[in-house]
Amino acid sequence: MYHFDWIKRHAERTPDKLALVDAHSGLELTYAQFDERAGRLASFFLDKLDLRQGDRVSILAGNSADYYVVLMACSKAGLILNTLNWRLTVPELEYILNDCRPRLLIYEPEFAQVVSDLRGAVAIEHQLVLSDSPDGNTASYVDALAAGDRNGVTAPRLRYDDTWCILYTSGTTGRPKGAQVTYGNFFYNAVGMGQAIDLTSQDVNLNVLPTFHAGGLGLYAGPTFHAGGTLVVMRAFDAAGLLGLIERWHVSVILLVPSIYLMLAQFPDFDRYDLSSVRSWASGGSSLPPSLVKQFASRGLVIQQGFGMTETGPTVFLIDRDNAVRKAGSVGKPVLHTEVSIRDRDDNVLGPNQVGELCIRGGNVTTGYWNRPDATAEALRDGWLHSGDAAMFDDEGFYTIVDRWKDMFISGGENVYPAEVENVIYEHPAVAEAAVVGVPDPKWQEVGRAFVVVKSGQTLSEQEVIVWCQGKLARYKIPKSVVFVDTLPRTAAGKVLKRELRESSQDVQP
Questions:
Q1: Where are the alpha helices (DSSP H) in 356-439?
Q2: DSSP secondary structure code for residue 138 in this structure
Q3: CA 36, 236, 180 angle in degrees (round to 5)?
Q4: Tens-place pLDDT, residues 60-90
Q5: What are the phi and psi torsion angles at 484 (to 5°)?
Q6: Which CATH architecture has domain 409-505?
Q7: Closest of 391, 380, 395 to residue 316, by C-alpha
Q8: Which of 23, 326, 453, 454 has the fewest Cβ atoms within 10 angstroms?
């Protein structure tokens, strides 16, 4: 048995220390208040709903301080939290919920219609609305807090390899896979990232990344709570709002994605804000253009590029401040307690300046995918997680993510898997073949472009393809352009040559 209730420890040691700030609602919680609120909710889960250790709890909600209260309440009760991407369509959510099979679904009022649409297709025993007021017969979050025991619950018996959260990440087959993030993964991420940025109880972290993703849920929040620092939660990004919060709360560490940095770079009032409190600007989610690193450096702001995966808790790399500009484009070196290896397709270990597949092992690596022993066996081999990403390291030991061996691309910080999009396009009666690739975009970094072969005797327009995808896919997955071709380039084995499609996209004007 190990003790993972960091919030309780800080509540005992520094009860009046500010733990959480909700920039949208104005809610502020000290560690004592955070601990009591999470304890009451855990008590409600166990005593009133009769949930048991290992049961799943799904949450469909935007960023808020109470999202983290739910997270820590589940931890106190030994429940497994499943975070749902609110950008997904009802069919996409239906698949995840039927795979995860939660006993409780927590949702915000703005998603009430989505939940109503799901009720006929998904069997969920309990529901709770994250609000001050009930939603019909559904109890409210405030009522749940009032019904829970203020003394909380007895700490469950937990081990490092017990599952903490299930975070779904789409696979190349087009079906989402639930990565099992363990308590050990959460702990090793907190230690590794905390050491990488020298995090202390005096630090203030601002999170605007979606809490349904590993980055927003735990990448910086976990280390902040482990150290006893303060987390400021922003519901949605806007440049003025984010910069204003940094100035108001004297934010010292922040993690953003490249698309946000691109928008900040174009924000005309950027230089009017006092950002001197920030000692660590970090970037993750996708590659940060070296030119942007240098642009911010000219303003005296050093951006540290990192790399991680849902399956790695999520941190793997973060470049140090001293080398962030000199080595722009590199993700640096592995964080503490994480080991990496670059291997060829025959699993041979490669040396400096050789491109191969990035493989990872350590306490931060997932135990596998929920209900997917096949995918687990494919990804975890001989103790190593095979990432599907192409990478290399130079003579100084600095790593660079060169490309993705898998076909996934990243749009506005969101992973898009072409196979999932292609499957939807293929369903159109006029489509004979389809292939999707990511192409550069000035705002979102990458967006989807579909290459479509139309069936003989049929006609199809770009708008018809895009409209066909609406309602079947989240908006960020829908291709922004469509190119009609007579044939798709293929290998002798019949595999589509997506590299050729990406190269041809440099000259195509759809």
A1: 373-379, 418-426
A2: B
A3: 60
A4: 999 999 999 999 999 999 999 999 999 999 9
A5: -95, 130
A6: 2-Layer Sandwich (3.30)
A7: 391
A8: 326
